[in-house]
Structures are given as structure tokens and as C-alpha cells.
Write a structure and sequence with these properties.
This protein is α+β, with helices and mostly antiparallel strands. Helix content is about 40%, strand content about 35%. The chain contains seven helices and twelve strands.
Amino acid sequence: ATPQAAVYEFHEATTHTFISFRGKMNEDHALIDGVAEILSAKRRELVVRYDGSIYTLSQKHTADIVAENVRVIHTDIPIIIEEYEFEDQTRDELISKIPKNTLISGTVKLPKDLKLDLSDLSSSDYAVLRQKKSVLTLSFASKAQLQHLFFDQFFELSQKRDLAKLAELTLKKQAVEIKISKNTGSGELTALGQATLLTEDERLELAQDTAELMANRDTIQLQLDELLLKIAAKSSVFSGAVSLRPIPPTPDIPSSKSSDMIRELSDSLGSSL
């Protein structure tokens, strides 16, 4: 059958479905003869899991794997998809809940200003992970690929700067509150002592100084509130909804790598090699 015919068979299947195929890798034109699981199908193109990676497969020469003919293999293993929603969880918390032999699809809301390093996560051109602003889209990503996600250095540096600024503002506020405490009589000089020992001009000056300190304290508190909101928005926690698809064992189907097969492929695909 052609890959297009396999698309129709896959849409009607309720169990894990595989294909046995002969074709070539588009990237290096290497001839391959293998078995792959069909994960998705659209028009004339299949999305398959082959040798631990995700590829597109069709007769078109734009696909990752170009194959003229495939053989559909149905199994009796039902497709059981587990839906999972989460909120404000760390990467380690999320990964700990994902079984090892699972493919993950869905969307994840990222911390503000976070730029993920998605390079070198897959041996194919199929994008199992795509980031657009603060949304990460997963399409049959593996647990291992999620474990190898790295935050960019600028995001981590920004977090450290925010925490340093938080400590600085906290100390400033404490210093101002100590001065206010002394001025208002809760320090060494009580209100009665101020009335006895200070002149009217000195008391007015003290009152004005206290008012300025209180205004300064309020300004610092506003800066603290804004910074805490910023830190919360950039905290390394994630929210979203994903589906977990178990990876079944690949059927044990002998592949044919005879010289006749190589010659057959060379004849049928030679014009595009």
C-alpha cells in the first residue's frame, strides 16, 4: 500500500498501528528498511516513531522519510491516552509523574521571559517541541527530551538580579522603619521626652522628617510589591494540559536488506538520490 492508503487505515484503527516500510532518509539519502509506529496522519503524510525519534513519512520528497510503499501492521494493543492538567509545578515535579515509555503532547505555559534551548533535542526535523512567546507546544515529545530542556542564561541571570534587588529593598525598608520608630517615640526618646527636651522648631523638623521617612517607606513597599509580582510571574513553575501516550513494543518483523532490495530502491528512488 502507499502511505496515503495507510492514512485511511490508521484513521479507522482503535489499536496501536505500525508500518513496515522501505525508503530513504531525506537528510542523507540513506536507504532504510524498518518498522515504525503511526502516531498521526494528515492527508498523504504520516507522523511515525522510528528508531526512537519522530519523523514524517510519505511519498513526497519533502518528508523526513520518503517511502513509496508500506505495509500496515495492526496490533491488539488498545490506544489508551491519559489526559493530565497541572498548575504551578516545577519541571522536576512534572517529569517525576511521567512514565518512562511515554510520548507527551499538549501545551505548557512558561514563566514570563523564559527562552528555552530547544537545540539538539531530536535527530529529525520534526518539531516535537515548539516555543511561541510563553507557550511551549509538545508533539510526541519523550520524557528524556523534557529532562534535557535548559533555561537560557539570561533568564537565570534575571532571576538572580531580582532576588538581589529584593534583598536590597528589604534592608532599605528595615532601615527606614528603625528611623521612624525613633522619631515617633518608640525608640530612645519618648513623646514626653520630645516635648520636654525639644524646641517647637525641632519638633516641627522632627515631624517633617518622620513624614518624609513614612513616604519613603511607602515608596519602598510599592517597589517591593511590584518586584514580588515580577518574581512570581518569572518563577520556574509551569501550568498546562498534556496527553500521555504509552509507547508499545515494536512488532518483531524481520527486515529484508538483500541486494535485490537495494537495487529496487535505487531504481525507484534513483532520480531523487
